[in-house]
Amino acid sequence: MAWFVEHWIASSLLTAYVVVLLHNAYLGNKAATGVAGYYVGNREMGGTVVGISFFATFASTNTFIGHAGKGYEYGVAWFTLAILLIIFCWVSWRWIGPPLRRFAAEWDALTIPDYIRGRILGHEPTADRHPLLLLSASVIVFASLLYLLAIFKGAGHLFQIFLGVPYEVAVGLTLVVVVLYTSIGGFVSVIRTDAIQGVLMLFGAVTIFYFVTNAAGGISAVGQLMERPSKQHLFDLNGAVPFAVLLGVSLSGALKLIVDPRQLSRFYGLKSDAEVRRGKWIAVVGLTIILGCMFPIGLYAHLLLDNVSDTDLIVPTLVNDAAIFPFWVTDLLIVSIVSAAMSSMDSVLLVASSTLYKNIIAPFRVVKNEVTSSRLAVVGFACTAALMALNPPGDIVGITIFSGSLYAICFFPPVVFGLYGRVASPSATLLAMLLGMAVLIGWISLGLSSQLHEVFPALLTSCAIYWLNSNRQPL
């Protein structure tokens, strides 16, 4: 209670924030009259709001906590990821979004497995139970679970430090809020909420950069690090790890912008190609601002913190430091960073639970009320991820990069090649996914990732198998 009195600005804003979330849930519930309304907003969304949602969904605690902190360990080489993210964001909206939106509308696709069914399986009577669709859905559910527990970890650390509550309580608090508005309002609630959260995140990123830079001695203070022998590795592309490994990490993260179901689902909801063009620049510019502000924070942390053992704690520690941020700014940033966690969490939760229900449960069990069943899937999936987050494996970036590798290996060939006419048989597509995953896991198990990141051989394997067994079909 003392915290809420001391930080009355943050308390007031968080209360208003929750009220807005619940209002959006109410509006989303009115639109969710069927599964199309619940999953993709009846394909009636505009480019402005979806563009904001796109960068807000991606730039979650993964960026504000994970990516920002990793600069402390990897130095300037880590900026490779930021550059690739911006490039792939543009590629996604320019080359993936328009045809994917048209195909999804034509086939009434609501999930990525639905798209794969329309492109690869066609109208086979037993397509819903085909091993290819079941594997695709299982990968989405598993990778989303990894990603969601990483976000729960980031949000838990935020509330733990800011509110002074135990980590377990912080995770539980996050769970209750995100489940309420996501399960009730569905896609419309998520998109409307993301639009607000995106604006808050832009404010937060710029503010964090301004105050941390000033505390470190200005932008030119980075030059002080270059003069220190103990910090020379920060300015060497191979200083922390071989650059080929870091490039693989960056590629795994960036590929998610064109194959991650939570990003691709945004295109499903757009009502026209004109809205795709409108949303493109909003998404690219918004993501550029956030990445440009957050990625240097890890470097500046060398001038402000000592003996950092967990880079995921750098940003929460800095933001909570009264010597760097005035209390009223800290209060504003608490809301901003919380919104970063929520903006990605709700999207992952909705996509994973919709895939779980529609492509794994529904083909084997007929239910009377699909929307209610989808809501129950949201609640169950969120609770599972929250329980796993109480003892998470690895750090935030490591967890999310692995999930990105899985998405790239399984979905890059059928999504990217398939959108432009290269279609393989169901068995070849299934083989490409399985062997790609086998190479990924085998490469990691053999310890070869220290020389070359596992995404390169695994993605090459899956793409080669798919391409060599595909043929050109009319679009």
Q: What value does the Rg take, in angstroms?
A: 22 Å
- Average pLDDT score: 85
Main β-sheet: number of strands, strand sense, barrel status? Answer: 2 strands, antiparallel
Number of strands: 2
Helical stretch count?
20
Gross morphology: globular
| Helix content range | over 70%
Strand order of the largest sheet: 1-2
Secondary-structure element order, N to C: HHHHHHHHHHHHHHHHHHEHHE
Low-confidence stretches: none
Structural class: mainly alpha
How would you summarize what this structure contains?
The protein has 475 residues and is mostly helical. The chain contains 20 helices and 2 strands.
Task: Explain what this protein looks like in three dimensions.
There is one protein chain. The model has no long low-confidence stretch (mean pLDDT 85). The protein has helices at 2-6, 8-31, 35-40, 47-58, 61-74, 79-107, 112-121, 131-163, 167-216, 222-226, 243-259, 261-268, 273-294, 297-301, 314-319, 327-361, 370-389, 396-419, 426-445, 455-468, and strands at residues 422-424, 470-472. Strands 1-2 form a two-stranded antiparallel ribbon. It is mainly alpha-helical and 475 residues long. It starts with a helix and ends with a strand. The longest helix has 50 residues, at 167-216.
